[in-house]
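Reminder to self: tokens first, then the designed residues, so the page reads top to bottom the way the pipeline ran.
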């Protein structure tokens, strides 16, 4: 069996590229088959102990293409980083989508660590060193936002802010049930993100005018 080659490690998964997949191996794989490989006892970029587990996986996302998923978890310091990378689609990209039904919960979303996800009037998921990349669906995005607001609500002392958080949670629930419409915008300068639906409007993302 041909071994997957790793180089320029340790380091974060963002540029420069840290991992190379041996493409010749893919020829032997059935199309729908997932490939998963673990590399244990890797040096951790944070605590420098050899307690990091590196996992790489490859999956095919319909209408998007092949996606490499990487994740690193340190058993010592709990450092965790995950990200996704598409084989093609390298242009900065912006997707807009209106969530309007329960069916929309199943719409696939690829979100890289460099993406900004905006749910206007609710929340924004920002990129940064702690940001994670993943393949999910609209429901998965809404759930992540819900957990964050939930956690913030628990910590909040101010009654007024507690109430605001409560109302946002109610709104999110209504969106999940298709009772309320909600716009979602994903901007990704790396081009590694997508909302996969005929209803999604894809455009070129102008990196300089990032925030309007
Ligand atoms: Zn560590």
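Designed residues (212 positions):
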């Amino acid at each position: 069996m041909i071994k997957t080659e790793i180089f320029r490690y340790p380091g974060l998964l963002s540029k420069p590229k840290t991992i190379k997949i041996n493409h010749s191996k893919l020829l032997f794989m059935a199309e729908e088959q997932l490939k998963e490989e673990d590399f244990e006892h890797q040096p951790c970029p944070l605590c420098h102990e050899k307690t990091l587990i590196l996992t790489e996986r490859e999956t095919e996302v319909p209408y998007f293409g092949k996606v490499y998923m990487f994740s690193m978890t340190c058993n010592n310091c709990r450092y965790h980083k995950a990200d996704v990378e598409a084989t093609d689609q390298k242009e900065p990209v912006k997707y807009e989508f209106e969530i309007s039904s329960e069916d929309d919960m199943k719409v696939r979303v690829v979100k890289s660590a460099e993406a900004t996800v905006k749910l206007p009037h609710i929340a924004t998921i920002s990129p940064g060193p702690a940001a994670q990349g993943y393949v999910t669906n609209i429901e998965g995005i809404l759930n992540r936002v819900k957990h964050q607001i939930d956690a913030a609500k628990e910590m909040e002392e101010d009654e007024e802010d507690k109430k605001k958080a409560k109302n946002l949670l109610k709104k999110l629930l209504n969106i999940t049930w298709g009772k309320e419409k909600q716009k979602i915008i994903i901007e990704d300068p790396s081009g590694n993100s997508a909302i996969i639906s005929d209803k999604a409007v894809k455009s070129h993302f102008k990196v300089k005018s990032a925030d309007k």
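The CA atoms of residues 187 and 211 lie 10 Å apart.
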